[in-house]
């Protein structure tokens, strides 16, 4: 018996019961992860280039490997009947395992936190999704102890999560709210170019990061844009 077969047996065992609605949500999650992995295949060189200026240059390859592993893990879990929580749990574990680096661990935490918020029973509506995005934000902040202005992906996820929540509270439809939030994330990610890194790998290089945006913030904003396209297809 190979290690791979053992892994897959464990995965199948871990798939608990899920409602029809949650399995539908899990299918959207899998499509989103597939789209994210394809987008990151295209963007990996550029993300690596940005990370090389002030960091160690592995951000593109890490995001590419992590998202690909997450997409595969989600599809396998869904084939075995997983709901949203379980699919995202498997995807997050795979991303952390195969992505490596700080961003791999953080994306793993984020997907698991989103899954915990969505559960395996309920249908996922706009307010559930927004609450889940809020939990992703909380997970990143408690994981790395960074805050807004430290030149990390937090600088993109905070405006994204807060704008999404606020626009929905104002009565915007999900797609409009998500688009406004994705624009806010992109603007905030670009604006990190003006900051000096205080945390993460880049901190040891100090001012070398000035004039270059944070790679994790840029990739986070790209992901929100890709998910918007998937949500549009699903609408
Ligand atoms: P590594 O830093 O291990 O090389 P990556 O290059 O894949 O990992 O990811 C770097 C990104 O991780 C940074 O651009 C930043 O956005 C994010 N990051 C690093 N440290 C933290 C932290 N403490 N909190 C949140 N995000 C962080
Ligand atoms: Mg790096």
Mean pLDDT across all residues, rounded?
Answer: 92
C-alpha geometry: globular
Helix/strand class = mainly alpha
Count of extended strands = 0
The helical percent reads over 70%
Number of helices: 9
Report on the structure:
- This protein is mostly helical.
- The chain contains nine helices and no strands.
- Helix 7 packs parallel to helix 9.
- Bound molecules: adenosine-5'-diphosphate and magnesium ion.
- Adenosine-5'-diphosphate binds next to helix 3, helix 5, helix 6 and helix 9.
- The site of magnesium ion has 7 residues, from loops.
Quick recap:
Helices cover 74% and strands 0% of the residues. It contains 9 helices and no strands.
Question: Topology of this protein?
Answer:
Blueprint: H1 3-13, H2 20-54, H3 59-79, H4 84-99, H5 101-118, H6 126-144, H7 154-169, H8 174-191, H9 215-234
This protein binds adenosine-5'-diphosphate and magnesium ion (MG).
The site of magnesium ion has 7 residues, from loops.
Features:
235 residues, mainly alpha, 9 helices, globular, disordered N terminus, binds adenosine-5'-diphosphate, binds magnesium ion
């Amino acid at each position: 018996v190979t290690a791979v077969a053992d892994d897959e047996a464990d995965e199948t065992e871990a798939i608990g019961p899920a409602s029809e609605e949650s399995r539908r949500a899990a299918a959207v999650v899998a499509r989103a992860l597939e789209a994210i992995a394809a987008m990151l295949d295209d963007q990996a060189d550029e993300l690596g280039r940005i990370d090389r200026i002030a960091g160690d240059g592995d951000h593109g390859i890490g995001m590419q490997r992590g998202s690909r592993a997450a997409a595969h893990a989600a599809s396998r879990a869904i084939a075995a009947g997983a709901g949203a929580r379980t699919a995202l749990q498997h995807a997050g574990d795979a991303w952390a395992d195969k992505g490596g680096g700080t961003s791999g661990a953080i994306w793993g935490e984020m997907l698991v936190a989103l899954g915990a918020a969505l559960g395996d029973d309920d249908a996922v509506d706009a307010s559930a999704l927004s609450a889940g995005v809020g939990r992703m934000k909380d997970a990143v902040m408690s994981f790395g102890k960074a805050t807004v202005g430290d030149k990390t992906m937090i600088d993109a996820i905070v405006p994204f999560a807060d704008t999404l929540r606020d626009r929905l509270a104002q009565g915007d439809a999900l797609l409009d709210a998500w688009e406004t939030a994705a624009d806010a994330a992109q603007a905030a990610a670009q604006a990190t170019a003006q900051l000096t890194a205080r945390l993460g790998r880049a901190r040891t290089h100090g001012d070398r990061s000035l004039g270059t945006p944070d790679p994790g913030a840029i990739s986070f904003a790209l992901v929100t844009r890709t998910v918007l396209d998937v949500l549009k297809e699903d609408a």
